[in-house]
Amino acid sequence: MEARIGMRNIKSNIFKGIIVFFAFLITVPLVIILLYIIKQGAGQVNWKFLTGTPAPVGEAGGGIANALVGSFVMVMTASVVAIPVGMAAGVYLSENPRTKLAYYSSLCVDILQGVPSIVVGIVVYFWLVKPLGTFSALSGSIALAIMMLPIVIRSTEQTLKLLPDSLKEAALSLGVPYHRVILKVTIPCGFAGILSGITLSIARVIGETAPLLFTAFGSPFVSAALGKPMESLPHLIFTYATSPYDDWHNLAWGASFILLMFVLTLNIITKVITRKWKIQL
Amino acid sequence: MENTIVKAENYNSYFGDNHVVKDVNISINKHEVIAVMGPSGCGKTTFLRGINRMHELIPGATSTGKILLDGENVYDMNAIYVRAKIGMVFQRPNPFPNLSIYENVVAGYLLNGIKVSKADKDVIVEKSLTSAALWKEVKDSLHKKGTFLSGGQQQRLCIARAIAMQPELILFDEPTSALDPISTSSVEALFHELKANYTLIIVTHNMQQAARVSDRTAFFYMGELVEFDDTKQMFTNPTDQRTQNYITGRFS
Predict the structure, then answer these.
(1) Residue B13 forms beta bridges with which residues?
(2) How far apart are alpha carbons A121 and A141 in whole angstroms?
(3) Count of CB contacts below 8 A, A vs B?
(4) Domain of B23?
(5) Which ipTM was obtained for this model?
(6) In a domain? residue B133
(7) Average model confidence (pLDDT) across chain B
(8) CATH code at B11?
(9) A209 class by beta-carbon count within 10 Å (0-12 exposed, 13-18 middle, 19+ buried)
């Protein structure tokens, strides 16, 4: 018996050792990627890099202002479309989980989440770019919005489902009409969860290249016109990284660094929001 | 008749095909404390929620018959108006977690978008919290979140929130079942004071509580209103055998 217990302890410890090892192992690639991009990219970043536009081939220097502005404009436009639509759908799903419509729209959200981003790009190309006859920031934004939707819907739905019914009843028993109950009680109480879903969805789409390839296309000019082609950070990285010039490769590294920092910051903001703004029920 | 505030006439409630409240006729006077008691699943809470039309919010729930509030059938009025006129306090304290104590008291105005001046709001908050016997405890922390209070204080905050809307009638759905004994006695003490200005209908599981706080008691069993009488009379000399069985603890 004694010996068996000793054996069991050894097995437990081996098992513990294995899971600790793998938990540690998964952090290694992330750290290596981070360090590598910082090493290659951080040195490229300076004022001229952030404010300049791409230099013609053969000339040294050049900046990524066109991509910075482009990514910002398109992600903002996508947010303006996806956030209200996604939140409304999320509210419906959490409020009426048992209806037929809820069943089918929930199914669609799941499928939408699994659609490859390049496919979203093609679809938007045929829906918007072809009929309008031009690549445009607007079509890029719509493609990004479609990518954002499932994340916003799910996070809204999950957050609101966790709120107790008693909260809604408290408001209804005061004679508050349904729409005000949702807008003034339900959504504010679940705000932290919804907002973290929104920041996560932004962090997700800001790095998307595929849906922008044949929608926003790319442009060497700083532009905020939604009807015209527009550059974006991931697309700029793609074109520069696949070019034959060393100078452009450096620009791609710099842009990667900026993009990475941006995503990292958004993720940290999300964590802080969920911790600080979480409402004690 | 002058004195009647709530009157149910042939009132029935259903959850789908399930007949939970059967043909209830009851007449409740102003400034009375009514206890509604009965075993679990007897329809007492459903009846209570029928009075301010909260019952119908549950999918599949319906009702027939009339409930007259000051002579007017609540089912002919706008549900939102009915609910604003009748206060309600729930089983579990449910202050709004996103609002401060101050905002919780005036939540009925804030959430309904009723414009009230700051000075008037201050008056309403102080008066309601005083009536709910909570003012002394929270007057220095009015702008803290309501959820920082203890369970008993939260429940009194919910009572203050109901009082702030100046209802004539306040419904209590097992208001002390989630509270500790000390908080329970503070809420019970409050019922005696509220009686002067309001009519209270209290659903309770606890027979001692019904005996302690109420003027008249209604006994529900299997969805029927079995007996409705002076509390003293009912606890000492019930007329119906089922009431007697319940009071003496033959079933619960």
Answers:
(1) B21, B63
(2) 11
(3) 77
(4) 4-98+167-247
(5) 0.88
(6) no
(7) 90
(8) 3.40.50.300
(9) middle
Residue B131 lies in a domain: no
- Point out the residue among A167, A175, A191 whose CB comes nearest to the CB of B94: A167
Interface of A with B in 190-219 (CB under 8 A): 191
Residue ranges of B 39-98 with Cβ closer than 8 A to chain A: 52, 54, 57, 59, 80-85, 87-88, 90, 92, 94-98
Residue with tokens 């304290």: B93
Q: What is the mean pLDDT of the segment spanning A241-264?
A: 90
pLDDT digits (tens, 9 = 90+) for A29-88: 989 999 999 999 888 888 888 888 887 777 777 788 999 999 999 999 999 999 999 999
Residue B146 lies in a domain: no
> B169-173 and B33-37: which strand pairing?
unpaired
- Chain A residues whose CB is inside 8 A of the B147 CB are 279-281
Strand partners, B67: B8
Chain B residues inside the 8 Å CB shell of A280: 97, 145, 147-148
B139-158 residues touching A, CB cutoff 8 A: 145, 147-148, 158
Residue pLDDT, tens place only, B231-247: 999 899 888 889 988 88
The reported pTM is 0.84
Q: What is the dihedral of CA B51, B54, B57, B60, to 10 degrees?
A: -40
pLDDT single digits (tens) B37-77: 988 888 899 999 999 999 988 888 999 999 999 988 999 99
Detail the DSSP E strand segments found in B55-168. 61-69, 72-73, 86-89
> Do B80 and A177 count as a contact with CB atoms less than 8 A apart?
yes
Q: Nearest-CA distance from B59 to chain A in Å?
A: 10
Question: Which among A173, A176, A184 has the least Cβ separation from residue B54?
Answer: A173
B205 domain-assigned: yes
Query: What's the number of domains chain B is made of?
Result: 1
Q: Which amino acid is at B200?
A: L
